[in-house]
Amino acid sequence: MQSKKQKRLVDQIVVNGVLLLICIAWTVPTLGLLVSSIRDREDIQSSGWWTIIPHRGWVQVSELPIPEDASVDSEITIEGVTATYDEFRAGVETGDGRQFVWIGNLRNGHIQVKDRQWTAGSNFTLENYGQVLVGKEYIIRNADGSTSTVQGDDLSASFLNSLTVTVPATVIPILIAAFAAYGFAWMKFPGRRVLFIIVVALLVVPLQIALIPILRDYVKLNLNGTFLAIWLAHTGFGLPLATYLLYNYISTIPRDILESAFIDGASHFTIFTTLILPLSVPALASFAIFQFLWVWNDYLVALIFLGVTSGNVQVLTQRIAGMVGSRGADWHLLTAAAFISMVVPLVVFFSLQRYFVRGLMAGSVKG
Amino acid sequence: MQQIDLQEKVKATPLEWLLANIGRILLSILVPAVTFLGLRAGFLFLRDSDAPQLIIAIVAIVWGVGGVAALYWVFNWVLELLPGEWKAQLQPFLFVGPAMAILTWYLALPTVRTFWLSLRSADSSQFVGFQNYIASFTQRIMLEAYRNNALWMVVGTFFTVSLGLLIAVLADRSNFENVAKAVIFLPMAISMVGAGVIWRFVYDVDPHIGLLNAIVTALGGEPQAWLTLVQPWNNLLLTVIVIWLQTGYAMVLFSAAIKGVPDDLLEAARVDGATETQTFFRIIIPYIQGTIITVTTTVVIFTLKIFDVVMVTTGGQFGTEVIGVRFYREFFNNQNFGYGSAIAIVLLIAVIPVMIYNLIQFSKQEVF
To answer: Which one of A233, B110, B286, B347 has the fewest CB atoms closer than 10 angstroms to its CB?
Structure first.
């Protein structure tokens, strides 16, 4: 019996250990982004974000002036250490456990003297967010010692655009789908079965199929680049799943609740608005979160219907994808921007996780 | 389940039947059309105005949501004024009609229209038969896209499903189930564009920036330009991004399914001396088969349509082309509507088996 107990303990340790490792692996990429978004631009380029974890590293202890007669071609001797200019720039270890690093160029630079100590990066700043949200300027120190000023990005407008796109693109399909789901579940009419089969068939149709004809319609209707265009598109693409999910829920509401209401002389419309909608809140919430995250995170539909050039209606995903192209190496801006785009979905996700999971369970094949 | 039926059983004459159907179709189209026109007028006005953006945002949201709700209300009010028989005939279409009209405009008709466009030239001016399809199955870059999509589908789906299953089983037995599940699930909330940025950062060529290269150099290797030069393995590194995004979804569904396996079934197996591995493969797996099929098809469709991740990380260059990006390039960048449509139809054909499966499952339901 003793061995069985021991075996169970070992099992427990293995299970928890493996799971912990997986969880760490899953978190590290996001953590790196978050940490980098609050690090200074120069810190990001000179040391990895993981250096905020305490480790043994080189820490500057003092500074030396550069010798007057230094030249690129010959070796330079500083405090008894001889190396070329390029070697100094890369960092030269002295015999006594110190490191000399040449900062700046040949003429106006200095030598950093570093010691090996326990250290952890702790230089955090919120500057990046200012630069990326309201377009604050920042200063770059170039390799030759000069400085230049660069304009940040202005994401606050795209943030508002994302909200303006997402809220109606979530509410409108839910409203329309709820009416339809009620109709399918509680009304009898010719063609009911055929129409619902169409809904089921359209569940997995890839939305790429619709983009070209719809874009042509929008051009004719002079709708391109308006919020209405993208709301309707998201409504159309979200409707099959919404109708299907809400039908599944609404059709299970007990019959007698409705019957007593009918006996009291209530109309379908009254029953729908005063009875069914309140009773369906869990299902409505599930789909709402689903659709909200889907629309907020969408890139393709926005790219096609809001356009690449018209900057004033661009949503966050478009803007960030654009930044990857134009500022691909400005990690201090990119990380902050990416995190800004994640804040809203993460808040929605954590506050309403229960409903979201329920929505996923109910069916999640979307075109 | 029985339907509530308030319709009076009157024998309809052909004329009445015709009138009723015209009324139904009109109603179905009228509600969305009036909404649309009203909203459009508002929007053209908003687009041309230079009010502060916050105001525009608020007005747009109220205008859009309120407009749709008001329309239903107004049309219902009109319907209520009609005589009882007419009302009963038309009312279902006030409920179902708008949804069906929008679905027709946005999904059903475009399928036909896209197919029609796919048989025509780049600017749709002339009929070219199946030329676009022949091109889409012979062009070198398309073949590369098919190869990569197949890789995405096989590798991405395999790891998403098996990791999701593994984590669901581990979490079920661990001491921190809820925390673990939240952590794995979290990437589901992140956009693929955001995920693209996160992983570009991990894969950065500079070992002071990219974590992967930092690990490689710490182990004594040379830093690599993972996403550009390491072909064809860069495709696998991109697949990792989607595995990272989708495993949470697989895990949540599997976790719920595993909890649904009856305890006495597992107990009986253990009493009979089955090992944990045997119970897992002989009892749990067959029991949750339905869930495995659902998750697998969802992830397969997801990888088939993959677009954002590739766009943001490599743009389809360096041997990472996929169907979704090809479609976008042909349609949007090259303005080749014929070729773009053909690619979209190829995507549609690829999901038709799933569509048929869904319809079969649906027809098994007794309810309808």
So the answer is: B286
